[in-house]
Design goal:
It contains one helix and 17 strands. With about 300 residues, the chain is mostly beta strands.
């Protein structure tokens, strides 16, 4: 080997090593620790977290799994090239956890387009397909459990589940060194069965399920279940999920219909989590819009 060949090979080796280090750094940066005390962002214009075009990766999110922490060895979270003609985020559902925004937000209209895949997993293999959006997420990842290894953290959930899409779950969580669980408290008008009714009496709720106006009290946790007033698209169809959060007031929409309202929420800002909970689901749009006075 002459000196020229040696230098060329040495240069190539250095380039490969530098590229490998750069790629490793990018991967590590994707799950770098998030500053949970950073001020919440209020959208002044549309914030696109994913739209399948200009954002072709998951740079706005960190990954979390209750059994693996910030590692994702089985690729629960990926971007696939083509679902119904366009790229989309795929969440396999194999392990419980979520894609969590790296920033906190307040006072917004969150618009998400999602649809079910066909794969279901483990104890939910024959149960209704289940996912959801946790918003106003506060504190450290995994804090729903005292050991900080839960898939969830304290938040309010917009349930995405066959037959129950649009239900509320009030999720509590811990702070380090504090024995008491902290959870949200909200007010909702109901007449019976914790179902939203705009003509009902307002009640204060914490630590429980609250149900959308279209909820079927005969709901069963079986694969493919649907209620007679269900607003969710048939399996394989896309659904538009919207959450309007303005101060302590929160409204849920499904495919253009207002299905639930909350007021006086004690949680008013936080990160946003797209759940993995036993069923394959695709997201092709995740956007935050400014809240206007008439919406």
């Amino acid at each position: 080997m002459n000196a020229s060949d040696f230098l060329t090979r040495r240069l190539c080796a250095n380039v490969v090593a530098a590229l490998t280090l750069w790629l490793f750094s990018l991967a590590a940066a994707g799950n770098a620790e998030v500053d949970i005390l950073a001020p919440a962002v209020t959208p002044r214009e549309t914030i696109t977290l994913y739209d399948g075009n200009t954002v072709a990766d998951l740079r706005h999110f960190s990954t979390w799994l209750g059994n693996h922490g910030h590692e994702d060895p089985d690729r629960v979270y990926t971007v696939v090239d083509l679902i119904d003609g366009a790229p989309a985020i795929r969440i396999s559902g194999e392990h419980w956890g979520g894609l969590i925004t790296r920033s906190s937000y307040r006072d917004y209209r969150l618009a998400v387009e999602c649809r079910w895949g066909t794969v279901t997993w483990k104890q939910r293999k024959h149960m209704s397909r289940n996912s959801g959006i946790l918003f106003h997420c506060q504190g450290e990842d995994g804090n729903h459990a005292a050991n900080f290894q839960s898939p969830w953290l304290r938040s309010i959930e917009y349930e995405i589940q066959e037959g129950r899409t649009g239900a509320v779950v009030l999720v509590g969580g811990y702070d380090r060194g504090q024995p008491a669980i902290i959870g949200p408290r909200v007010t909702m008008r109901t007449k019976q069965n914790n179902i939203w009714d705009p003509t009902g009496e307002p009640g204060v709720f914490s630590g429980c399920f609250l149900f959308q106006s279209t909820y079927d009290v005969g709901w069963r946790d079986v694969l493919g279940v649907r209620g007679p007033a269900d607003r969710e698209a048939p399996l394989g169809g896309w659904n538009r999920v919207e959450i309007v959060a303005r101060g302590g007031d929160i409204a849920y929409f499904l495919n253009g219909t207002r299905i639930l309202e909350l007021t006086d929420s004690t949680f008013r800002e936080g990160r946003i989590l797209l759940q993995s909970e036993g069923a394959e689901i695709f997201f092709r749009l995740v956007e935050l819009h400014p809240v206007t006075p008439d919406k």
